[in-house]
Design a protein that fits this description.
With 251 residues, this protein is of the alpha/beta class. It folds into two domains: 5-107, Rossmann fold (3-Layer(aba) Sandwich); 146-237, 3-Layer(aba) Sandwich (Glutaredoxin), CATH 3.40.30.10. 33% of the residues lie in helices and 16% in strands. It contains seven helices and nine strands, in the order βαβαβαβαβααβββαβ. A hairpin with a 3-residue loop joins β7 (201-204) and β8. It is globular, with a radius of gyration of 20 Å.
Length: 251
């Protein structure tokens, strides 16, 4: 069987040091000779995003792609929402996709306990973090008008909230949304209420609830609501005290 292209998947990283660690992991995997190509990606904040890495390997002609999740602990719903995201991305892509397979999570593999024991045994040889320095300076209260909350309650997590959050944060950085127009801040949230509309996003101070939000939904919310001050109607649901159901095509 031809060797697969391997993408090592983590949640998020934006600083240079953790990104260098991801690259080192990929380099080590490449030296094992088990993969035709190795790269890394993030499901939440950080670049490259998983969709971007997949697209690059498809464009390069990969015959098979294996995703290796470096997620400890890994939510029980992870495989489900990854599968839904892959199906959605494939449907929106005109190219022929190779098989995309999900490797087992690290904690299910033999030898994990021995690896942790080795970490404990070598603690004395590891450079310990310095004593924290207490900050005495003040903090600026953000002046940005818009607050974007991405729900991470159980139903939203199962529906792929991590990908929604990651796309929002990456676009926030790419478009300088904190300082563009009236400005925006973003935050993860526990349950926002309308679980059947997962993934749910709310934008304040307007208090607008958006449901069935995916990457296209985030793009619409940014373009319409954050930059133009108008509701992104295709994803918006009224707070009228009535039960709401996802509209066809909004998820």
């Amino acid at each position: 069987m031809n060797k697969p292209d391997v993408i090592v998947v983590a949640r998020s990283a934006i600083a240079a040091a953790p990104i260098a660690e991801m690259q080192a992991l990929c380099d080590g995997l490449a030296s094992s000779g088990i993969a035709a190509h190795t790269s890394f990606a993030f499901t939440e904040q950080g670049e490259p995003a998983l969709r971007q890495s997949l697209s690059e390997r498809i464009e390069a002609g990969a015959n098979r792609i294996v995703l290796v999740p470096l997620l400890v602990p890994m939510e029980a719903s992870f495989a489900n929402w990854i599968a839904k995201a892959l199906a959605r991305w494939r449907a929106a892509d005109e190219r022929d996709w190779p098989p995309v397979l999900l490797a087992p999570p690290p904690m299910t593999l033999p030898g994990t306990a021995e690896l942790l024991a080795r970490a404990v045994a070598t603690t004395d040889d590891w450079a310990q973090p310095p004593e924290p320095v207490l900050k005495t300076e003040g903090s600026i209260v953000p002046a940005q008008k818009h607050r974007v909350l991405v729900c991470h309650g159980a139903p939203c997590t199962a529906a792929g909230a991590a990908l929604v959050w990651g796309h929002l944060r990456n676009e926030q950085a790419r478009q300088s949304l904190r300082t563009c127009g009236e400005g925006m801040m973003s935050a993860k949230s526990t349950c926002l209420g309308p679980c059947s509309l997962a993934p749910v996003v709310q934008v304040w101070p307007a208090g607008t609830t958006y449901g069935g939000v995916d990457e296209a939904g985030i793009d619409a919310i940014i373009e319409r609501h954050i930059l133009c001050g108008q509701t992104a109607e295709a994803y918006a649901y009224p707070a009228d005290g009535r039960k709401q159901r996802l509209r066809n095509g909004s998820a």
